[in-house]
Amino acid sequence: xxLGVVLxxxxxxxxxxxxxxxxxxxxxxxxxxxxxxxENDAIVxxxxxxxxxxxxxxxxxxxxxxAVMQTLTRNPLADPGLLGVNAGAAxxxxxxIGVLGITSFTGYLWFALAGAAVAATVVGALGGGRRATxxxxxxxxxxxxxxxxxxxxGLSLWHLSTLDEMRYWSVGTLAKRDLSLLVTAxxxxxxxxxxxxxLARPLGAVALGEDHARAxxxxxxxxxxxxxxxxxxxxxxxxxxxxxxxxxxxxIPHAARAFCGPDPxxxxxxxxxxxxxxxxxxxxxxxxLVPPSEIEVGTVTAFLGGLLFIHLVRQRKVAQL
Length: 321
Description:
321 residues, mainly alpha, 15 helices, globular
């Protein structure tokens, strides 16, 4: 926990100080607490601070969503992006923008939630429902992701007037995101986070197996439904704010389990610390790798997550499930 706090504080400091223009930490402090109206103050307060706050909130939401999903399904490959949640939210939002002409955040927020819920349900059904295995879920999620992102790309080409807006949103980015977006989505993110933490103990029972969970007095059906609701709120709200950012929910639970094991009572808090730290560091890396341009954070996390995914599927114990 202490290491997670240190890493998150360091990531926040990097996010505020590092970019196209490097700003010393003492100047960042001055811009936050004793602004003088200088150019550095404007960069920190108007550009980097909203980006950092949104990144921390969205990262925590995606990390919690991944931890809940992996624990519920007992699937080390489970990830909101891999299992179609992010793609479903993206497809629904792009439909709202391109077909219905809805461009306000409050307008397409509910589309993101509905799309996330529908995609998760479809992937679960295609993967075998209660008899789903990690490989079947991964294959079903890959198929649904391909179909949905193909739909997103096709719709973008069809509606040329909104191509730029949809293409920019569908990549997954923290750039040019206003804090008002996070304020609007915050009830959903907070509700999903509180629900996830409230489910920590019953999720631990379900992770032992459904028969063991029932013997311990846990309602498996209720835990499953509430867990899906928590993941939908967390990942649907996060995707609506920043677009689809994949693989973060896959990477972070694996890193956290190296410290705390599979117990959700420890896993969830650690994921809420490590995920925003990784997202902010990935965002900083995207800013400095190809100056003066930048690589969107969704692309950076996809590259890192792809490497981890290849490592996981090559492990014999995962491939045999």
